[in-house]
Amino acid sequence: MTIKKRVLKGAVALLCGVALVGCGRLASGDDKASESKVASTDKDTVLMYQVGVPPENMDELMEIANKRIGEELDLKLKIQYIGWGDYEQKMNVITSSGENYDIAFATDYLNNAQKGAYADLTELSKEFAPEAMEQLDEAYIKGNTINGKLYAMPVNANVYAQQMFTFNPTFLEKYDLDISNVSKLADLEPLLKTVKENEPGVVPLTAGSGWRIEKDIDFLIGNSVPLGVDLNGDPTKLINPYVEGEGILPQLDTMHDYYKKGYVPADAATSQTAYNTDEDTWFVRSETQGPYDYGDYLLQRITGKDIQSKPFSKPAKTVAQARMANFVISNNSKKKEEAMKILNMLNTDAELLNGLVYGVEGRNWEMTDEEGRVRLLEGYQDPKSGYLSAWNLANNEILYIDEAVTDEQIDYKETSIKEAEESPLLGFNFVTDNVKSEITNVNNVSAQYTAGLQTGSVDPKKVVPEYLEKLNEAGLEKIQEEAQKQFDEFNANK
Q1: Sign of the Cα pseudo-torsion (285, 291, 292, 296, in order)
Q2: Are the CB atoms for 179 and 311 separated by under 8 Å?
Q3: Predicted confidence (pLDDT) at residue 231 exceeds the cutoff of 60
Q4: Average pLDDT for residues 159-169, to the nearest whole number?
Q5: Distance of alpha carbon 5 from its chain centroid, rounded?
Q6: Distance from C-alpha of 78 to C-alpha of 63, rounded to nearest angstrom
Q7: 161 DSSP assignment
Q8: Which of 71, 340, 427, 459 could form a disulfide with 128 if both were Cys (CB 3.0 to 4.6 A apart)?
Q9: Do 106 and 326 form a contact (C-beta atoms < 8 A)?
Q10: CB under 8 Å, gap of 24 or more: what pairs does 482-490 form?
Q11: For position 247, what pLDDT does the model report?
Q12: pTM of the predicted model as reported, rounded to 2 decimal places
């Protein structure tokens, strides 16, 4: 990669773009099954399975991309999309059947890697993708290494995540509300009260069935199995945050208070209502941000509003972030080296990646006078002149930067990545063989209690003791004991 390409750093508002548009739609892969088989046996074509819905002009984008690939490699890339609702199930079928494919967006990465479904990339990446590997944050390597081996090429993007309270500027301006001192849930009280009393058609706090208010807890398996590390506590100890720490219990009390005052929808525990960010149906929502979102830039571009956010958790590099978007090579692939070369080029060639992520140059975007900066054109908004999402494609560090992103936002991105805290769980792979049934039972219990507690719909002082009793009956203590034993071994051998 040239020096010029190395300095063309940044990300765009496409981190979620196409992906979010496609979340509710299904793209069938069955109607192109025969086409996929042809592609997978073509000696010059590398087949990649991708999640989501392709843009209408996918053929045009791939023609441009393959022209560029052909200039560097004697190969072609075929991207086969499978819809969001079908992807995991269909990839499980493809994996279990031993179907020959080359690259895929990973699902259930740890288990599939341990089962031998994915090729070992430890040496392949060193030989055929050294440039791409150089640009990865060490957290990606730690988070994806299993028993000393690497099975994925992670997308270099939001290596850390931070939970934010995001505010609708319509009401901040209308009532001259000050959010400068907001850092925790309880700080929202006077703001929510103002909106509740003056805007009867607006939801003050958009809590729904998926709402979670945990603060600075990195969960071992997921928040439905309440075991994790308190990022403000002992880094060697796995706790149940419903028993220990300050991450959940005080906030459950606050949420219940908000629920009783009508700041939260009455049906919050079961509601799946979507409050569009560009509409004035909401006042405060929870959003996750990472460094390549450039603060509120992404939301501001999508909504056309001066969206403002305040963090309520630490920026943390976790296993979940390290595995957010992994590309793997099938262990059955006959073209492992070729697939690795393609992944390397996607992650290091700025011309190739930007052509896919922004769309057709001259129609969707153009370079500005400042090196590495782009201006979005009218074609960018045309659904017939589409583009691919960046967060689950390749290295965001080599994306050109939208001219709307400020120098201050770029500087903050750089420093925040360096300063973000690494979770103590990063690199720890919990082997669940001895507690699989207990994990299933705990998940079932949590499904009954979590939404009600998190949204404030039930009184935590009454319900938490009952929840804990059911968790222990389901086997949470056994899971904790097994996990802590393995975690102690992990820390001893670091």
Answers
A1: positive
A2: no
A3: yes
A4: 97
A5: 26
A6: 10
A7: B
A8: 340
A9: yes
A10: 482/434, 482/435, 483/220, 483/227, 483/238, 483/430, 483/435, 484/237, 484/238, 486/428, 486/430, 486/431, 487/236, 487/238, 487/425, 487/428, 487/430, 488/236, 490/427, 490/428
A11: 81
A12: 0.87
